[in-house]
Structures are given as structure tokens and as C-alpha cells.
Amino acid sequence: MNTIAITHENGVATVTINNPPVNVLTIDLINEINAFVLSLEDDRETKIVVFKSLHETFFLAHLDLHVINGTQGGQAASIEFNHMITNIKKMKQLSIAVVDGVARGGGDEFVMACDLAYATENAAFAQPEIHVNIPTGGQGAVQYARRMGKNKALQALLLGNDFSAQQAEALNIITQYVPKAELDSFLAMILSVVSTLEVRDIVMYKEIIHASIIDENAGAEMELRYFLERAKENKTQAIIDAFIKHGGQTEREAKDIQGIFVDTAKELSK
Amino acid sequence: MNTIAITHENGVATVTINNPPVNVLTIDLINEINAFVLSLEDDRETKIVVFKSLHETFFLAHLDLHVINGTQGGQAASIEFNHMITNIKKMKQLSIAVVDGVARGGGDEFVMACDLAYATENAAFAQPEIHVNIPTGGQGAVQYARRMGKNKALQALLLGNDFSAQQAEALNIITQYVPKAELDSFLAMILSVVSTLEVRDIVMYKEIIHASIIDENAGAEMELRYFLERAKENKTQAIIDAFIKHGGQTEREAKDIQGIFVDTAKELSK
Amino acid sequence: MNTIAITHENGVATVTINNPPVNVLTIDLINEINAFVLSLEDDRETKIVVFKSLHETFFLAHLDLHVINGTQGGQAASIEFNHMITNIKKMKQLSIAVVDGVARGGGDEFVMACDLAYATENAAFAQPEIHVNIPTGGQGAVQYARRMGKNKALQALLLGNDFSAQQAEALNIITQYVPKAELDSFLAMILSVVSTLEVRDIVMYKEIIHASIIDENAGAEMELRYFLERAKENKTQAIIDAFIKHGGQTEREAKDIQGIFVDTAKELSK
Q1: Quick check: B155 and A147 CB within 8 A?
Q2: Most buried pick, A26, B109, C28, C88, via CB within 10 A?
């Protein structure tokens, strides 16, 4: 790996992007991300993949302008970039973009391909492609349309202007704005909660959400089927028994449901 | 009725939930809500159903944990709970949840099944099911996906964290945050306006909204058909004549359209 | 033209609505707007159409109440009004509503038919039709459902209450609230950026957005096809060469991508 570095710890893979000078999505970077993402299909250990950048001002710049042309190589590279977006969207693991810098064009599309995205006051998001005579090529326009509605999407795509993390949260480009000073503890909280889950839990909710957005009734049927199956599991009974023992279905739930969950986990780990 | 109390006044049915100790959705409560909701199908008097709680801290807790299992009785009760959600969604009357306490799991799903939901600073909303090894079972994940988009929904479902009423309004879990001190007058205003309408008006708009969300063109066709039919009614002509007589289509509309409606109503009630 | 005045300048057509006393959507005004909008189909000069009002307090009032009836003429006029909404939605040019006054009923529907809508502190938006015994007839309910979700839409349609520009922005009725004092400079900025584009750019993004909202995958396929075609154009290569020459793919992008675009434009205009 020349453009990304990967570390593994407790089911969390951290991918640090480092493609000087400004983290452009070159074909090398695209290929390395694709290879890693596809390797996760058969990975039984990794639950969460966190994407970060080593660069001080860029999270991830756009697709390498040198491949945006009519040559066979250029068109093939653009298609590989597009596949990278769909590969990330199809991951069974929970993907998280941690954005502390600029993410325009393909960088913005990369962020939106991830399941969750958190960004700081140093982040900037934009899809300025039209000013280079091209549309977005990694679902940028598709995602803008679906996330912010047709009017705000059209304005953003024609202007190509930057959005701050707060604006990006309001427009559903990212999940949440997190001040840089709180980023580490916020991310640690997210990872600690999700790490208690199984990969199949993440997959189940991704499937229900995907189905529900296309068809409300189909989503509702899938959800109920999963619910009835999961209700039968011994694991469910064990958790519920411990949960009730420690104050489930009593007043303690009102103000301290987290405490009940903590005591339940302790009980079960005995 | 052991777990709910129902009062009727001027076309408004008020259902007060009272299932000690903490308003858990037991099979008794589910059955009583289902029986009442289904009885409304042939009700020609009731226009609005308001759901409230007698409990100080809980609006409505989750589905009774004692039925979440693989027994025949447990699975049947879970399915009844799921039917309760779809029954509420299918009501012809306007359903309103007034939430002044905790609504997690099935309680949160109950709130989202209602047409409108108002909540105070005492409210808390969450879908923490995954931490008991199950998904939501009453369309919680379905509604989160459709109301807040896939990223924010996935975060909320994996974390299972509480949302305040203000957060719930921003995420479309509820219609509006209303401070407790203003709740009675706010609700009185809503009821006084909607009480001037007919049940068929509520049904018409629910149908158009439902159709429009699935297919924009189908919704537009339905809306125009209703418009042309309704335009022909004598009632429409009578209102329009009185409306114009009292300043419709003049400058008075700009700053005092409510006053024109008041004068129109007076004129018609002569 | 008796009810609208049209001026053309640098690819921007400005339509000023002036139908005293309060800019009601009379059949004359509807016919003149329809004739103008349909004339734009073969117009190769106009990129942007800005709709403004000459009236001090009304942007555009509702459909003329005198045509809302069961007569043949009334029903035909109502259908013409409905066609006006679909005609505006189908324009290839970028349509912009600049709202500095009241826009209720058909006026609100006109605003939502436009691609972009900006409104000041003097604006008010509402769909109060149900209080005249009719539903919306120009996709008002359809648009409310799709833009603000079923709960907030149902509340707004049953109450018929006014929304301020800030509220309308949050509910996606308009694109953005702009203080009256900043309106001229804001609009000049929008027009100056969009004027650098071609009509086919606007059409392309409208098509991708439209397809994406109906079907995410279909939108993604259309976007990629456009991307690969556009990448082959000489115009694209010329812009990219100049963009790279002036600091594209370097640190300059981080804080001054607008400067690179300015220098790129200068280079290309030599």
C-alpha cells in the first residue's frame, strides 16, 4: 500500500489516506481503496471501517483531473472511481468518514458513500464539477437530490459552492458536525457502542433502511420478519432476563436506561 | 377498558393511557387500543383522536419484554403489536400523539404511527432495540429511514440514543416541539381549527399525501380530480361568495386572511 | 401582455407580474404566463427566467376564486392553472421565484413549481384551500408531502397557516431565505455564476435530479453516462488544462478554488 495505511484494533479498521501532495483520487489511490474494500467481503473480524486523512487541509480532493478525458485509460479510470463509490456503499461493515479538511468533487462523493460521516470546523464540502464542463461522476448529484431535495440540490450543483460541516449536516451531506476539540472522544463513544454489536446487526439495519427507502411496505415486512426471528434466539432471552432483573420495565428506565444496559452487560459477562 | 380511558367531546376522542407501573405495551393495552381504533371505522362523529398518558414520566414504554420470545403466544402478541401500528396508520380520523414523557421502542413507534405528534421538554424518543438483540418491530427503522434519511437513521438505530423533542422535530420523528407551558393552548388551537373541517377533508388530504410520496404524478392527478369535484359543490360556492364579500381578493388578504375567514364563518352560520 | 412585463438581458428573462389589485391568478394572467413559458421551448438565448412581482405586498395571490366552480368555463380555467404549474416545472431554463410578498394557494404553488425560490422577511407562504372546501389544485399538497414529509405536510394543509421565509426554507418550500437588504446582490451573484453555464448544463442536472429522486440506481447510471460523454469534449480538456496551470490539484485549491476558477476563465477568454 502506497497511498493508504491500514491498522486493525478490536474489530475496527482505520484507513489513513496519504496521497501527496493534496490527496487527489489518483488511479493508484482508487485501486488501493477498491482492493481493501473488496477484501472486507470475507473478513469476519472487522465490524467498522474508519476513513481518515493524514493531510492537514484536505480530507480527500477530487478525481485526478488527468483521467477526465476521452482516452481509453481515462474512461477506464473514471469507471473504476465510480465502482469505488458503489463498492463502499455495498460494504457489510459500518463505514465512517472522519472529515477534518476539504472534500470536494470525488472527495465529497466518497464521504456520502460512507454510512456515517462526521466533520469538523475545518471541513468543506462541494460538487463544483459543472465549472469544469462535467457533471458529478460518483453519485454526487444523485446523493444531493435524494438528501436535500431537488431545489437545494440544483442550486448546490449549479453554484458548486462550499458547505461548512454545520451546513452539510443540515443538508444531510454528513451525519453530524463535531467540533475538532471533541472529535476523538465523540468517535471513541461511537466505536465503543457499535463494537458491542455483531456485523450481522449492522447488515440487518442497513438492509431494512435500504428496503424502506424504496418501498415503505416492503421495509415493514422485512423488519417484522427479522424481529420475529431474532425474538426466538437464546441470546435475546438472556439479555431480556438480565435487563428486567436490573430495572427494565420499571421507573429506572425513565432516567437511567443506559445504567440498566451497563448492568445487563456486566451480568451477561459473568 | 382497564388500560385506557376514553372521553368524547365535539368530535374529539381523547384516549388516556394508564397501564401501571410504566405504561408498557402489554397485550392487554395493545388489545384495548386495537379494539378502540378498529371501532372508529364506522364512527361518524369522531374527527380527531388525541392520545395522552396519565403517567408522570412515561408517555408509553416499549413492547412488553415478556412477549419478545419464540413461544407461540409471544410471537402472536408481537404480531398484534405490529398490527396496532398499521391500524393506527390506517385511521380515517386525525390521530394526534401528545407526548409529555418517555417514548422509546414501541412507544416511539406508536408516536410515529400517529398523523401528528407534539412533544414537550419532558419527552424522550429512542429505538434502542438492537441492544436487546432485536430490530425494531413496529416500523421504527422503517420510519427513521424515511423521515431522517439513511445516514442519520442508521446512526440512531445502532446507538439507540435518546432524542429530545427539539431534536425529534428536526429529524421528523414528531411534528413539532411545544413547551409544556404552552401545550394546552396550542392543542386547543389545533383542535379548534381542525374541528371546523369534515372527516372527509382529513381523509382526502391523507390520501393525496400518501399517493404523492409514492408517486409524484399519481398524487398530482388525484389532487386535481378532487379539486375539480369539490369546486362543483354548493358548499364551495357559498364559502367563496362570503369570503369575497368580506375582503377576499383585496388588500385585506395580505395582513388579515384569518379575519376574512372569521367573518366568512359568521356569515355562513347566520 | 397586460399582466406581465418581460425584459431580456444577457440570457436572463425577467418576468414582472402586475395584475392589480392583488396579483390574483386570473385566467388572463395564467394565459400570459403559459404563452411565455411555452415560447421558451425554442428559445436558444434565454438561460434563466426570474419571476418577480410589481405589487408591494403580494408576490402572487391564489387562483381567481371566480373560476372555482362547476361551470364549464370555471373547470377549464382551473385546468389551465394546473397546466401552468406543469409547464413551469418542465422548462429547460432555470426558473427562479423572487418572493418579497404574500404567496398563498396558487401563489405558493407557483413558487414551488420554480426550480429555485428566494424569499425575504416580507414573504408569507400558505395552502389554506381546505377552508374554502377545496384541496390544493396546483400540486400544493403534492409538493408539501414530498418536501416536508407526511406529518408536517398534513398539519400545514389542515391548518392552512402562514409560513415565514425562514420557516419555508426549513420546510423546503423555498430554496433560501434572503434578507431584503441583501436580495439584489444575492441575486446578482446567482445570475453571474449560472450565466457562465450553458442551457444544456441546467437541463442535464435537472434530468439527473429528476431521475435520482424516482430511482437512485437509474439516476446513478444517467449521471455516469453524462460524465463519460462530457469528459471526451475538447471544452473539458481546455478548462482542465487551464485549471491545472493555475493551481488545480495543489494546495491553492484548499483555500482559493474560486481564485483558480477566475484565473481559468481569464486564461480561456484570451
Answers
A1: no
A2: B109
